[in-house]
Request: fold
Amino acid sequence: MPSILFEIKNDIGCITLNRTEKLNSFNREMALLMQEKLDACKSREVRCVYITGAGQGFCAGQDLAEVVDPKGPGMSKILFEHYNPIIKKIRELEKPVVAAVNGVAAGAGANIALCCDVVVAAQSASFLQAFSKIGLIPDSSGTYFLPRLIGWQKASAIMMLGEKISATEAERMGMIYKVFSDNSFGDQAMDIATQLAQMPTKGLAYTKQLLNLSFKNTLDEQLQEEDRYQQQAAKTSDFKEGVKSFLEKKSPRFTGE
Ligand code: LHQ
Reply:
């Protein structure tokens, strides 16, 4: 079985992490395949991306056996060639990316989930900044997104202590959007992706780009960017459809154009 499963269904690019015997931890082959599938999601056919894990876990981060394997890629390549491109591809994709965290998300696995646009989790899932337990630092954008999501103090303590955070607690502290019961998780997470895939894709892409920019801009710069992107959004067919449908009291049919 391939370590990443991929299909396009109902305009959604579904990426499933699939090394179940290793809790979907990443080796080089899987990381490169993930990059390939994220690139495939650039296609106009895909209007939302859905990332989940097969089996019990979401992803246990880096396969630690590969790190000490003399025939493995070696420390110098793991972030540069594996995880950093994955994070950048997710942030740069011009469509929403949903992380559906079905079980434990540890190390790089947690941080790949947390850089997504909408993060939901099953009640039995958990988030673990496992790095400190093995003498490493939180990578894969953990030191960037976690303090911005939950505040400096909580992020600092969680990253240093390597405390496992339940999905319920993660929702409470604003680390993730929502937690769903294990029974309904798959359906409810997919409902969110289905909804996003039918929305004005370009408008959502511009929203994502503005959020990316907001971390580095001053208020003045951000207001200028909002003006620029709003002009672009107003040129889309979906804007015309949205306003026309509102005025005619009809349901809009957005095409993503
Ligand atoms: C694993 C792993 C795993 C291999 C479970 N590797 N087999 C960047 C830069 C360079 C180098 C290093 O990495 C990075 C990025 C990172 O991601 S660093 C952080 C790496 N990840 C971790 O440290 C997490 C290690 N795993 C765990 O702490 C536990 O497995 C968790 C808490 C995730 C889950 O615990 P359990 O639910 O009790 O499952 P388990 O421990 O029994 O795991 C199930 C199997 O999966 C088991 O294999 P086995 O043959 O004994 O059944 C584990 O050995 C294997 N596995 N994580 N990262």
